[in-house]
Amino acid sequence: MNLSPLQKARYEYSPKLPGMLRNGIAEICVKEGAATASVADQDKIKALFPNTYGKPEVTFEKGNNTSVAKKQVVGVILSGGQAPGGHNVISGLYDALKATNKDNVLLGFKGGPDGLLKDDYVTFDDAFIDAYRNTGGFDIIGSGRTKLETKEQFAIVAENAKKNGLTAIVIIGGDDSNTNAATLAEYMAANNTGVQVIGCPKTIDGDLKNEDIEASFGFDTATKTYSELIGNIERDANSAKKYWHFIKVMGRSASHVALECALETQPNICLIGEEVAAKKMSLAEITNYIADAVEKRGNNGNNFGVAIIPEGIVEFVPEFSALIKEINELLAGSKTEEFNALPDWNAKYEFIKAGLSADAFKVFDILPQFVQQQLFLERDPHGNVQVSLIESEKLFSEMVKNELAKRKAAGTYKGKFGQQHHFFGYEGRCAFPSNFDADYCYSLGYNAFMLIQYGYTGYLSKVSNIAKPAEEWVAGGMPITKMMNMERRNGEDKPVIRKALVELDGAPFKYFEAHRDEWAVETCFTFPGAIQYYGPAEVCDLTTRTLALEKGLMK
Q1: Is there a shared CATH topology between the 22-218+433-489 domain and the 219-429+506-550 domain?
Q2: Distance (Å, rounded) from C-alpha 52 to C-alpha 38?
Q3: 205, 207, 220, 439: which one is catalytic?
Q4: What pLDDT is attached to residue 388?
Q5: In angstroms, what CA-CA distances link 165 with 58, 76, 105, 119?
Q6: Domain limits, the chain
Q7: What is the pLDDT of residue 550?
Q8: Across 178-280, where does the E strand assignment appear?
Q9: d(CA 512, CA 497)
Q10: Which of 89, 98, 320, 378 has a CA 20 to 30 Å removed from the CA of 517?
């Protein structure tokens, strides 16, 4: 295999562990805290998880290892979308497992949860693991989005675990995947299988976080990758001085990625979905907000700028969200086939007009035709609009263009408006992990095995104090049920991990809010540049602005 110089060098990088995990397996003891309760709906969650609910949080400390020695056969899967650092979670898990007992075995189940169901796995050895250390991607065993949620599925997993002699399963995934991990752990405990289940917090969207989980892995690398690209575009915009760049970034359910990129690059505009929802902003209000900045800059001779748009922004707009609900009802059941059979867009337009309420159609009718059509593209597995297919960056640039035309006719806008569009998504999901993510992920994997060794199940691997140098990080675990609440899913109440949204009274948003008016009119661009892997720690191990602000390390 031909390797790039960076790839060769990254194989040799030694990730930093939290101080208490550097003592050697024999000198790591566990300290249990108080019993926990779910974040909401305590009685319902407790009833659903009688064997794994209310367990204590745990912290690993220096001391004599009191765990019971036994051979461990551990299975691991990567679940959901890719995030930088997944390979290092597996590397850390493997190294801890082998450091405890060289006869321990790690099996990598291929293609995500499907691998557990199909009993499709590889047996890791040193050479296998060494080829993936500190690299991006999930290609070591692949990933998948199959949900583990039925008793029939759990029974198959339990049978395959028994056949392979598994003592534990580690699920590396986001909120849905770790919800499945909690449910699988409960099944395994209720049926006395002897199989433990441990989760690891992954998602570049940043919405798997709370008072215990300070950051999901991959967020650091992905946002730094996007911020480099946005900084490059800002430099180009300031050079050419003739385009407004509308940049959509990942983040359907929360705007953490957009906010972090804005803190890194100081664009003229950044929409935050949570604020749009809180203020009940309409499409027209958002359009005018952007157009105001374009007009002020254009009238000052600055016919260029950068606007960051979170992927899921339209779902936060109340009138648009209501429109989507009506469209989902309009195309329920066989109506989709009836709609698709219509001969042309004019016929489909009349079908839509007849089927929507007056208020919903009013919103629909102000949309550019390409967005109208995107709302009726292929449905998701539940028959709903696929919001991710809506090119919201083009939607707002087109609406701003139309608004500016009115202002030009009225004589208030004297500038020129040229548009460029970008979507940064896949570019960040499999990047070489930053030193922070390489260290954090390795620690999460190493720590996951310590939870297994001490007999815990239904826990999430937890590494905290991560805004400080790795030596000061604190390793431990928390019951997954602590993060859960009941939510309505597909017509049923389901226990799920609560997503973390951008907090409008939190330090990261408050910093952004305090500076955005200046950024909107002035050219205050900053250029983060490429992720640095070698050099001064203050450059190479730099954490996100979000985490630094949350921990009071940035003002």
Answers
A1: yes
A2: 11
A3: 205
A4: 77
A5: 27, 14, 10, 12
A6: 22-218+433-489, 219-429+506-550
A7: 96
A8: 196-201, 244-249, 269-270
A9: 28
A10: 320
Cβ-in-10-Å burial (0-12, 13-18, 19+) of 328 comes to middle
CB contact at 8 A, 377 and 369: no
Question: Which phi and psi angles does 350 have, rounded to 5°?
Answer: -65, -35
How far apart CA 509 and CA 513 sit, in angstroms, is 6
Task: Name the token pair of 515.
Answer: 């500076």
205 is an active site residue = yes
Residues of the chain below pLDDT 70: 1, 380-383, 490
Token pair recorded at residue 442:
């390795």
Q: Give, for 171, the enclosing helix (H) or strand (E).
A: strand 168-173
Tokens of 419: 């548009």
For residue 487, give the amino acid letter.
E
Please, how many CA atoms are within 13 Å of residue 537, restricted to the half-sphere of its CB? 7
Give the per-residue pLDDT at 384: 73
E strand intervals along 39-136 = 56-62, 73-78, 105-109, 121-123
Give the containing element (helix H, strand E) for 172: strand 168-173
As a whole number of angstroms, the distance between CA 305 and CA 244 comes to: 5
219-429+506-550 has which fold? Rossmann fold (3.40.50)
- Concatenating the DSSP letter of every residue in 466-500 gives TTS-GGG-EEEEEEGGGGEEEEEETTEEEEEEPPP
Strands (E), 358-442: 419-424
- For the domain spanning 22-218+433-489, the CATH number is 3.40.50.450
Separation CA 134–CA 90 (nearest Å): 10
Asked whether 168 and 214 are in contact (CB, 8 A), the reply is: no
Rounded CA-CA distance 177/78 in Å is 9
- What digits encode the pLDDT tens for the residues 11-50? 999 999 999 898 889 999 999 999 999 999 999 999 999 9
Whether this prediction's pTM lies above 0.90 is answered by yes
Distance from C-alpha of 42 to C-alpha of 500, rounded to nearest angstrom: 18
Calpha distance 388→211 (Å, rounded): 29
